[in-house]
Design goal:
Rossmann fold; 4 domains; 4-stranded parallel sheet; 18 strands; 6-stranded mixed sheet; Alpha-Beta Plaits; alpha/beta
Amino acid sequence: MATNYLKKILSARVYDVARETELQFAPELSKRLGNQVLLKREDNQPVFSFKLRGAYNKMAHLTPEALKRGVIAASAGNHAQGVALAAAKMKCNAVIVMPVTTPSVKIDAVKSRGGSWVEVILHGESYSDAFQYSELVAKKRGLTFVHPFDDPDVIAGQGTIAQEIFTQHTKPIDAVFVAIGGGGLIAGIGEYVKAVSPNTKVIGVQASDSDAMNQSLKANKRIEMKDVGLFSDGTAVKLVGKETFRICKKVVDEIVTVDTDEICAAINDVFTDTRSILEPAGALAIAGMKKYVEKKRIKKKTLVAVACGANMNFSRLRFVAERADVGEFREAVFAVTIPEERGSFKRFCELLGKRNVTEFNYRIGDQSEAHIFVGISTQKAGDSDAIAKHFRKAKFATIDLTHDELAKSHLRHMVGGHSALAKDELLYRFEFPERPGALMKFLTSMAPNWNISLFHYRNHGADYGRILVGIQVPKNEQKKFQKFLATLGYPHWDESNNPAYRLFLK
């Protein structure tokens, strides 16, 4: 028998711990987008995330016997806090398994929410590792597993958000934008929306490097991703749930994917309107809404975006601020080749007109040509294309690097590194977990005759570090190198043919 989600949502028990959050008008976003934009402020929950709704509802529907035995959950953050708070409220023992890579601020938050009712176990390097271990502990101790998304009671708990939205705004709503990780949030919201307002579109938003649901819906089967991006850590799910996938096939009208820059811009947008700072996953819905409006060119519609979380590490704001300008189309970056002769730089600057230069990097490296890295203030999408054409028209060879990850994360800090000694050099980007020993694991896994010819790392205050490495690998050892990459286990990207690398570093 199919689950009656409308009934389950209407009878959900969440308000012992959760609060009815504001549906807040966003004046600046509304003005810029030409639509009425309303933000559902789930970042204002006691655990700064919607997750406690589903966790508490699941636990509230357990039998007294199950509660007495206790519960267990696997989580790297927000879900863990929800379970911890629910456990303390219900006086139920809870075991929470978290990856060893979890930042201490999140571990401390879980302990403080749950107090003596919560036992935290650190195991594995990822959510998947923690999840597998939690299943073993659950069987051994007879504990009930509280799933972060793939459970009808969890889904129904999250669905109470939609119930609040339609109570708070009685006029027609054209679209609701919801972040997707495993799919529990959008499944619950989607079930309610389609039951009470079928004409309202339910639009999911995913990070472009963590879009398991998007890929699954396109393939009409669950697709497990090999790697997921870590910036939007709250939605970094490799495999969506069985039940959430079934529901999403029915209730989701469209999925929009957004990149890191667009997420950073959305964080900035919400700050401008509310003076609150969302985490990357919390800003996904806003980023997707902006992209959808631009793509569809819609006007004078009522749009709701769920601001679903605000568990942001403060130190990460350095990175967000740096990348928000690109995501908001306020900055474009270019590699421009100019003649190495007197007066050429002046001629280049004249081309800029009244545009503001945000960054300029140059080092002499050739008698006839100079390669410069330049950042320029822009006003809107498409400006970077227009500027690049302007440069080329003046006979300056130009590459638009505005959407080039290598250029924005590393090259802007390293320009001028040509070397005649870098024979057989391969260039790779890696994402390392920010923990002791990660770099040593990388170095000790390498063949001793492979020389590191380039290395760049910059701490952005995130749970992971971005590293650029040049490695000299003899041509007859390429297969051995590919095996090294496969066994290392770190996300990586081959940048050896990147045109920006060939201009500035090769």
